[in-house]
Batch of 4 targets.
Target 1
Amino acid sequence: MDTKLKKFVTTTSLGISIGGIEIDVPNFRTDLKDIEGVVKLVVELLNLAVGFSVIVAIIMVIYGGYTFITANGDAENIAKGGKILTAAIVGMVIVFLARLIIVFILEEFLL
């Protein structure tokens, strides 16, 4: 693998780092006998899901932008690119709001 690519995408025993953004893999060896262990596992799974959705959204934004730029004045492709960009942005807003609500509920009512 190219050294520049190795610096950009690195894997560790705890997760993956893409461009300096680290996505941790949940530790399933947590103690699930008490509520703190369950909450910790839920938060770790939530962080993994958010990290994965960020990667998918970035890919969608790149694809939507590419479709939009290469439309060459075709109204159908311009609309398609715009819809892809809109869906990616709205999807990420929903994901971040959902994470914010879940973490708020966990912190305020369970811990």
Target 2
Amino acid sequence: MAKSACGASPSCPPRRLPQAPVTDYDLGDDSYHNGAFILAANFGFYQSFVERKGDPARRLPPFQFKASDGYDFYLGMGGFGNANEKYFKNSNPYWLENICNTTYNDY
């Protein structure tokens, strides 16, 4: 699908602009930003984006970083691989799918 832009005056002829659906996470993506995994954005998102269990859905409390700022938190985390063991406890399949499929593969 596309939407039109301009076209209201002769100086700006009508044109079509592509939409930006999330259809391919490794090609012009939202998770890896063309190869660069944005740790802070993804870590924060996947802390609260979890599988729904039971009805009604429960609201999770905000994640407690327990650090003076984000830099200290991620520095204390150590390597990127430590996030899953220390904080996600291997329990968030969405996080695991993102970190286990870092390249344009068959996934």
Target 3
Amino acid sequence: MKFPAPVRTGGRAFGQAGIRPLKNKRMKTKNNLKSLDQFVDEQYGKRGTKKRDRFETGFEAFKLGFLLQQARIEKGLTQEQLAEKIGTNKGYISKVENNIKDVRISTLQKIVELGLGGHLQLSIKI
């Protein structure tokens, strides 16, 4: 099942069913930025709470694309530059980042290692 990424609209985020809209917050200045983990902790509580578990369940569906996008931006690359590094096109990178296209593990490894200069680690929780 695929869920769209929350869209920031008028101070509220809409996305998965069962997740309440975010509280209206003032824009943060560059010196007052929060990490994604800090933001999620504030909005949905610490890991292990019911509210956080509901959020995590829905969030898993689009987290991979978001993580790739954030890593690409952190490296200062455009989608086109990343695509060129791994031998694909900008449209493919966009679809992966926006969770429109599923990505094979081998392709994910290529994106992370060749394109972003990182190391892919996978884990399975049982």
Target 4
Amino acid sequence: MLSHTGLLRQKCLIAGAWRDAGSGATIDVTDPATREVIGTVPDADGQDTRDAIEAAAEAFGPWRAKTQGSARRCWSAGTR
């Protein structure tokens, strides 16, 4: 059993926010050894998927610029 239950997220992370599936539907997560339901996860649908893809696409440009700049600084510092 998970000792730090605050680590268990039963929502989708989309655009930096934890949220339920748009439909509100969930899927039970069971312990295969005991068959006990230990949690639920959102039953994400097509719209949830599109929202996640759009959020990832919007975040990619700034993330890439940031990581490229960090890599250049590290490389430059190592070559001096």
